[in-house]
Write a structure and sequence with these properties.
A hairpin with an 8-residue loop joins β5 and β6. It contains 20 helices and eight strands. It is 58% helix and 10% strand.
Length: 505
């Protein structure tokens, strides 16, 4: 009993028709040749492909699956041709009609492929638009954050914009990048619109690097957009720092001068520095002399730093630095006077000593020397610093100062007149024991020796003496207060003890 229809005479046309019908992916060639299991296998393969492929997305169908499916269709076509060569068709009876049907049905997979490609292209467009939207949202979410915190997000968003225009130049998302970029610039530079100029410097500096990341056509006029804003921010921030005494103004003005040498903002740097010098100069001579001198000295140094960093074609910065330096040096005298009057005798002495050393021909040098001496006396005898010393000298009362000490002794005195001198060491003299000085019979300079001595002519009034040994074991200056009256001759004796200094009349 036969298991199938009897073989038919070989028919090449029928074989081609079956092969074409199988290429439709529906196994119709097998259906017309009564091979139902093989037809079902074709349906299963096509169903698997449709389940994986639909709905269409940007990634498409995996290449391996397409390759396997193509091989299956090819195998079905070859096998169908083999079967159709000797097997009669169920319908239509004639091979030419079956061949025509096979050709028509080939439009099914071909049309499906075209439809799928269009669907996939749209999915790609939507995916790219979604990436663009995510980048825009990332930028918007960082509004109000410090640039240092948000910079990573800004760079990530910029990377998305760059990838869209570089890798997908014809996409709808790429065409929208310029608009997103304008918003991007505005968001990053938001501190400038808020007139927070110091904060705006970093983001505006960053925006000047953006054109190097994107095609010129995409950036367009935004390429120069940050320049004027950055120049304004650098100047404004530098001017704020200059006014407040912050050191950053040198960096801000230096960056401005180097980056935008011809900008209007750069032209305002030297006048701003000049104004700061003049303002500090006005503070010299008053109660704020020391602060003014400190500011002038600081300006001298920092203007020099600015000149070194950014150059000084017209020499105007050098001129401003020179004026600040000279004014600071001249104002040191007024600062010393201020310190003396406020009772800061240690700093007053140091300030005046420095002034004297640095100004050998200054008109106030002589008085500065007197103030330095009086300040040193007042460190030991505070009452000596109640009045500012003058340059007066001489008087009607003789005061002889002797040195009963094995060391050289510097004698400082202030009162109606101020001065100092040094007495040589006394040969054969010794330092006294502390116990000696406590005895009622203790009388230094009474040994009949040839004591080194010097006689002064001082005015009537109170004169304060300090004897400062230049060697030995004495660590504390001796002092004495002498109230000088007419008709008397005074003797001042300097001596040393083992641990203390002393003097007497």
């Amino acid at each position: 009993m036969p298991v199938g229809p009897p073989p038919a005479a070989p028919d090449a046309g029928r074989a081609v028709a079956v092969a074409l019908l199988n290429l439709s992916g529906l196994g119709l060639g097998y259906a017309l040749t009564r091979r139902r299991l093989l037809m079902a296998a074709c349906w299963v393969a096509t169903a698997i492909l449709l389940v994986v492929a639909l709905p269409a997305d940007a990634d498409g169908v995996p290449g391996a699956l397409l390759a396997v499916y193509a091989l299956l269709l090819l195998a079905a076509a070859v096998h169908g041709a083999y079967v159709g060569l000797r097997t009669r068709l169920v319908w239509p009876g004639r091979a030419p009609l079956a061949l025509l049907l096979g050709l028509v049905l080939l439009a099914v997979p071909a049309g499906g492929a075209l439809w799928y490609q269009d669907a996939r292209d749209e999915a790609v467009q939507q995916a790219l638009l979604k990436r663009l939207t995510s980048a825009d949202q990332l930028v918007a979410a960082d509004a109000g954050k410090p640039f240092g915190t948000a910079e990573g997000d800004y760079r990530e968003a910029l990377g998305v914009y760059r990838d869209l225009v570089a890798d997908h130049p014809g996409s709808r998302a790429a065409r929208e990048v310029p608009a997103s970029l304008r918003t991007y610039y505005a968001k990053v530079a938001a501190p400038y619109d808020s007139q927070d100029y110091c904060t705006a410097v970093a983001p505006l500096t960053y925006l000047r690097t953006v054109p190097g990341e994107l095609p010129k056509a995409t950036v367009g006029t935004l390429a120069d957009w940050p320049d004027d804003r950055l120049a304004t921010s650098l100047y404004a921030c530098g001017a704020q720092g200059l006014s407040a005494g912050d050191q950053d103004w040198v960096t801000r003005f230096g960056d401005l001068m180097k980056t935008f040498p011809g900008a209007p903002q750069t032209a305002k740097v030297v006048p701003a520095v000049d104004a700061a010098v003049k303002k500090a100069q006005k503070g010299v001579g008053g109660s704020g002399s020391c602060a003014a001198v400190e500011e002038l000295q600081r300006l001298d140094t920092r203007i020099g730093d600015l000149k070194t960093a950014a150059g000084d074609p017209g020499g105007k910065l050098a001129s401003a630095a020179s004026r600040a330096g000279r004014s600071g040096d001249d104002g040191a005298y007024d600062c010393g006077v201020q310190e003396y009057r406020s009772g800061d005798f240690s700093n007053a002495r140091q300030t005046m000593d420095t002034f004297v050393a640095g100004h050998p021909h200054h008109r106030n040098r002589a008085r500065a020397q007197k103030i330095a001496i009086a300040a040193e006396v007042a460190q030991t005898i505070p009452a000596a610093g109640k009045k500012l010393p003058t340059t007066a000298s001489g008087g009607s009362i003789s005061v002889t100062v002797k040195n009963d000490s094995p060391d050289d002794v510097t004698v400082l005195y202030t009162g109606p007149v101020t001065g100092s001198f040094t007495l040589k060491a006394c040969g054969g003299c010794r330092s006294y024991l502390l116990a000696d000085t406590l005895m009622s019979t203790f009388k230094p300079c009474a040994g009949g020796k040839d004591y080194p001595q010097r006689t002064l002519q001082l005015p009537v009034g109170t004169t304060y003496f300090v004897h400062k040994p230049n060697g030995g074991q004495v660590t504390t200056a001796g002092s004495d207060t002498a109230k000088l009256r007419p008709g008397y001759i005074y003797t001042e004796c300097a001596y040393t003890t083992q641990g203390f200094g002393g003097s007497g009349t």
